[in-house]
Design goal:
The protein is an alpha+beta fold and 706 residues long. Helices cover 34% and strands 27% of the residues. It contains 20 helices and 27 strands. Strand 18 and strand 19 form a beta hairpin. Keywords: Hydrolase. Pfam families: GAF_2 (PF13185), HATPase_c_2 (PF13581), SpoIIE (PF07228).
């Protein structure tokens, strides 16, 4: 006898389910057991699925996936349905899933036997030794559901997660979430319905004889196991539900902080008895859903409030200024309401110029945002009165100091909690001349980007942060922008976010600033992405404290031709008799100018010569020194020329100092280190200069340039 005949004699059939083609092959006995004609046949998986109880089908799906993962047999019981959906028998299957080698797809063939067995004592899906008891599956499902709902950040995401939940043994095919607005029921969202199906249930009075309305009124869940029960209990609204073709419904209250905020409806196309275990799962999901919706609503309210605060406190740049292009960004990263103390502003001045302001109030809380708003208004008022940059900052410092002194303390606070300071950079820009008069209160220095793309930190004089002293002084530094040059102002968040200090943060930003871009909006966005984009994760800084800070960026460019034949970069500054410390600033600025110079020893030599030349002016004259450094030519063939001018007519001369002499070596150093040097008399005073060549002879000199 054949194997099939032997198995049929003992009431056992063979079947094979191919997931790649979605077909099922039966021998005659297996076909009879599932309610098909008793003959060997191949049917579609969808046709076979309709003959298996939906609750058992969900169980089988989990068993097969478990067996594939563990390499074990899949064993389960199934209730077989007839054409009318009535249970005709219960069968047991023992099958072996065999994975198929299908590129890019997870497919298998399920091969095994079917046997008729006695029906289980209740209507629930039978227990299986492979999956453990149903309660363990339920707990695993609830853990996954809780995790997914907790991660949802908006109401839309919560509804999407709720619609994708596959409950163990009795997954609904339609969901709806109802809210309450006054005395009316509203539809917050739905899943498994067509667009427009929710209209009859929208704006429904809570007095309506509808299950969701009654759940909201009473706070008690309603379970309707059959259409007959629905029609008997809610005859007025049964016509609204009858068209969806469902056979069981569960309506559960959404309760948050003891208040019923709405109702959740789960509809089933198959009959559900709503056993105690099933009700327990639905109640737990309803509680998690209510909490997730509450969190999402709070987060959305905070985001809306944040956006409103940002729009109110951060101005737009307004219409363009002739001769200048401006772009800005503000990124709140302090958490909470997503508002902080960083800001920027652009203020029209009475003299036809404009003022650029950027600042950072200490802290990342609501009080920092409030102080920022008040300080910004004060700065606009002082600027509109026509004060110079130093006077504007002096008045702003006095204003902020007064605000913090008058702050009302709450219980547990001391006066140090109320003290706040702010850093600020205020620049008065003349679009026609390309000059910016900069006053700085403890704020990072600006960065100037030359036409050839070189980014250099422009050292400027500064004073204490605003609010530290009432009568602080803020010296002014003039920065000159040539046609096509750009200046970047930012708060320390752009530099230090990600565990960076000022040095490593500047190293991270320099390549972004030096990348050629024609659009300032593109440059501003690239700076933000360097800190918060995907690439920022690979450039974390060395500091342990990596708390993020708010970011404000303001970029300004003087309009003009950005391409020319001889690329150059230039820096100029004054070294006053009363400020000998400016010599160190001049050395740093020169090194910034030569950051990509080929020979580092030449850079060291240039620093030494600049120091000697500036010191000579301060020691041997009574006036200030004007230092101008300029780099011209293409990389690899560039020329550095540095001039230090003063008002004295006394020309320097070479001396032969002894071993113990403390001076007199300046010209000797230039003669040894410089490729060319000289002293040029002027109408008033003189200029001492030197040149260094990146190659043996720069291309411009070989071509006859000077």
């Amino acid at each position: 006898m054949r194997t099939e005949e032997i198995l049929a004699a003992i009431g056992t059939g063979l079947w094979s389910w191919d997931s790649s083609s979605g077909t099922v092959a039966f021998d005659a006995e297996a076909a009879r057991l599932v309610g098909l004609p008793a003959e060997a046949t191949v049917r579609s998986g969808e046709e076979v699925r309709h003959r298996i109880h939906p609750a058992d089908w969900n169980e089988i799906d989990g068993i097969v996936n478990f067996a594939i993962a563990e390499g074990t047999l899949a064993e389960a019981r199934m209730r077989i349905l007839d054409e009318d959906g009535e249970v005709v028998r219960t069968v047991r299957t023992r099958s072996k899933p065999v994975p198929l080698d299908t590129p890019g797809r997870h497919t298998y063939v399920l091969m095994g036997i079917l046997q008729e067995v006695a029906p289980p004592p209740d209507s629930a899906a039978a227990q299986t030794p492979l999956t453990g008891d149903w309660r363990r599956s339920r707990e695993a499902f609830l853990l996954d559901a809780g995790r997914a709902l907790a991660e949802a950040g908006s109401t839309e995401e919560v509804l999407r997660v709720a619609g994708s939940l596959s409950m163990p043994g009795f997954s609904p095919d339609g969901l709806a979430v109802f809210g309450v607005s006054g005395e009316r029921l509203t539809v917050i969202g739905h899943h498994g319905h067509n667009v427009g199906d929710e209209k009859p249930f929208t704006d429904m009075l809570l007095e309506t004889d509808y299950p969701a309305a009654e759940v909201v009124r009473t706070g008690q869940a309603i379970y309707l196991a059959s259409p007959e029960e629905y029609r008997r209990r809610f005859p007025a609204t049964w016509p609204l539900a009858s068209g969806f073709g469902r056979r069981s419904w569960a309506f559960l209250p959404l309760i948050s902080s003891g208040h019923t905020m709405g109702a959740w409806m789960a509809g089933f196309r198959h009959t559900v008895a709503f056993s105690p275990d099933e009700r327990s799962v639905l109640n737990t999901v309803a509680r998690m859903l209510a909490q997730a919706l509450t969190r999402a609503g709070t987060a959305e309210t905070e985001r809306e409030l944040s956006l409103g605060l940002q729009r109110a406190m951060r101005p737009s740049l307004g219409p363009g200024v002739p001769g200048l292009s401006v772009a800005a960004r503000y990124i709140p990263t302090g958490g909470g309401l997503q508002v902080g103390g960083d800001w920027y502003d652009m203020i029209p001045l009475p003299n036809g110029r404009i003022a650029l302001v950027i600042g950072d109030v200490q802290g990342h809380d609501v009080r920092a945002a409030g102080l920022m708003g008040q300080l910004r208004i004060a700065l606009r008022a002082y600027a509109s009165e026509g004060h110079r940059p130093d006077a504007v900052l002096s008045r702003a410092s006095r204003f902020l100091s007064g605000l913090t002194e008058s702050y009302d303390l709450t219980d547990g606070e001391d006066r140090s909690d109320a003290t706040r300071f702010a850093t600020c950079l205020y620049a008065e820009a003349d679009p026609e001349a390309g000059t910016l008069d900069v006053a700085r209160a403890g704020h990072p220095d600006p960065v100037v980007i030359s036409v050839d793309g070189t980014a250099v930190i422009r050292q400027t004089a500064g004073g204490l942060p605003l609010g530290v002293e009432k009568d602080a002084d803020y010296p002014t530094t003039r920065v000159v922008l040539g046609p096509g040059e750009t200046i970047m102002l930012c708060t320390d968040g752009l530099i230090e976010t990600g565990g960076h200090d000022m040095a490593t943060g500047w190293t991270r930003l320099r390549p972004v600033l030096e990348k050629p871009v024609d659009d300032l909006e593109e440059l501003a966005e690239a700076l933000v992405q360097a800190v918060h984009g995907p690439g920022s994760h690979y450039t974390t800084g060395p500091l342990v404290d990596r708390r993020e800070d708010d970011i404000a960026v303001l970029v300004l460019r003087r309009e003009g031709a950005r391409a020319r034949r001889a690329p150059s970069r230039r820096s100029a500054m004054t070294v006053a008799q009363a400020e000998p410390e400016r010599i160190a600033v001049a050395r740093r600025q020169l090194r910034e100018l030569l950051h990509d110079w080929a020979d580092t020893e030449q850079v060291d030599s240039a620093e030494l010569m600049v120091s000697e030349m500036a010191t000579n002016v301060l020691v041997h004259t009574d006036g200030d020194a004007l230092l101008v450094a300029e780099v011209t030519g293409e990389p690899g063939e560039r020329r550095l020329r540095v001039e230090v001018a003063d008002a004295s007519d006394e020309l320097p001369h070479t001396r032969r100092p002894g071993e113990m002499a403390s001076s007199g070596r300046g010209l000797m150093l230039m003669e040894m280190l410089a490729d060319a040097w000289g002293v040029d008399p002027r109408g008033e005073g003189k200029s001492i200069w030197f040149e260094l060549y990146e190659s043996a002879e720069p291309a411009e000199l070989a071509a006859g340039g000077s």
